[in-house]
Amino acid sequence: MNQFIRIRNFRILVISLIFSNCASIKRINERLVPEPYTYDRSIPMAYQDSKDTTNVADIKWREYFSDQNLINLIDTALVSNQELLITLQDIEIAQNVINYRHGLLSPTVTAGGAIGFEKVGRFTSQGAGDASADITDGKKVPDILGDYFGGINASWELNVWNKIKTFKKAALAKYVATTEGKNFVITNLVAEVANAYYELLALDNQLDIIRETIRLQQSALAIVRVQKQASRVTELAVKKFEAEVLNSQSLEYDILQKITEAENKINFLLGRYPQPVIRDKSTFFTQSPRQITAGIPSQLLKNRPDIKRAEAELYATACDVKVAQAEFYPSIRITAALGFQAFNPLYLVRLPESILSSLAGDIVAPLVNKTAIRAEFNTAKAIQVQAMYDYQKVILNGYLEVATELSNINNLAQMYALKNQEVETLTKSIDVANELFKYAKADYLEVLLTQRDALESKLELVETKKRQFNAFTNIYRALGGGWN
Q1: The pTM is what?
Q2: What are the angstrom distances between the C-alpha of 15 and each of 99, 102, 422, 484?
Q3: 45 falls in which pLDDT band (50, 70, 90)?
Q4: Separation between Cα atoms, residue 277 and residue 258, nearest integer Å
């Protein structure tokens, strides 16, 4: 592959137009950013296919997520999230910079007037000449002479060395980078809202598990108290069961606090003040994440907004180097003026005597002491090298994120299956332990430990399920989905 894969949309078309005139700046050769053909051959082909270019990143986020409550939350976030609104203003700023630099290509024309008064020294060359000159017959030049002007002035710096156009192209590239930055914010925002939503559903289910456990523990505590009255167990057993109930009740309040924090996190992402988040906790275990197709690594170049932003910034720095280089060359400026000028305002309308016109051109080139210009040029080159390394870093980071999440999805699927079996086994063991305890074939410690192990395994099962949803959300973000 001799060239990077380019995004076939309007913004990348803009990039192509921008940088077609920057041909003198060498592009980054692809060998500087090695690109593997697959993410990881150790990952089962169920999660990647090196020959299939189908990619879940091409799916709209409304179709990728099936929970309507989550879709409604994301809709609100895309309208009201403050970070996204700030980024939209960055785009507005970048657009204005383009307009400003476009204006530099055209002449600057101003219109206005001026009033001034001047008294020259009598012994100056001008004063000596004015002493014998008459304005009208029989009158000398006044000591204080007025100056009235009205007209237009124009100036225009010629676009030699293509400096001004390249200056504009750099602004265009930065505008594209800002636009891709907005897309990157959208991608992360969609993922953040989804992950926070799944965290909230997980906490809801963990709360139900803890409350059910408290009910079972209180039932067991009642039995132990009866047995204590019958002298079958000691007061120690009663206290142990009471402590276990109290511990579970404290966990309940801990989960309630986490639910509040999760709701407020979502409300912050949605740009609104604290309020309940509408959700259906029963869908947590009934929903199944969709099948993942990761495509091939080269697709990251056209899907991930952060990679496209880094690419645009790289080309912007290349144009900045050309602009800095052009500072070593002469600049040519043309100035002109046309208007009316007189020492008395009544004479402004006397034509053609009061007409003022001028046309001048100047050429300026640095000859000595180029230290400042050379420093600016070297700085621009250093920034370009930084942008190149940043581009490589972003591509590498994108590849590693996808490879990590693909592996994560595979391992979590295995973990969830095993954890589910563990929960089923421990749930059955609670009934067995309680039954044995009734007939004095098991002591109270075995009952307590069985209940505790069952509670922990159920909570871990919920956590594993949440991590599965997070992984499927993160792989969607890592592949560059959600912004389009």
Answers
A1: 0.79
A2: 17, 16, 55, 18
A3: very low
A4: 14
